[in-house]
Design goal:
4 helices, 20 strands, five-stranded parallel beta sheet, seven-stranded mixed beta sheet
Length: 188
Amino acid sequence: MTTERDNMLAGRPYRAGDPELVAMRRRAQLLLKEYNTTTLADGRQRRAILADLLGACGDEVAIRAPFYCDYGAHIRIGSGVFLNFGCVLLDVCPITIGDGTQIGPQVQIYAADHPRDPDQRRQGLELGQPVTIGRNVWIGGLAILLPGVTVGDGAIVGAGSVVTRDVPAGTTVAGNPARVIAPPPPQP
């Protein structure tokens, strides 16, 4: 039998009020509350909380508090990743962040979405799409990544940008909506 969580992770309409999903969010909120009261001096405690909260967390990951997410369990973070203060990751579908990526303050990554049909919204249905960020990406502060986007390896997203579509590897984008301002360098 398909659960609401199955539907959610598959990007199909689901009901967020499902008891399993509510319990998962409640658990994440408790872990985030604990994490967000720590300081840099609490490295071991932070690492343990992230290991409990996230679906995967590589080595040498630094996430500055406060940090916010819906579930945590659907977030996979590679090694050497840095998230600055106030990042929000709405992980109703998988969010994957590759090794060596640096994310500025108050960046928001939305895998969460809502149906375009007002009748579905009135019924309380939600949906989402995965967000994938490659290796060695740099995302400037206050950027927003919308559901379903992929940011390729080595790309740069300018501060304050709203990323509405995929960003090819090695490309620099900026603006609202984000547009290419520097294409990837030519391959030899």
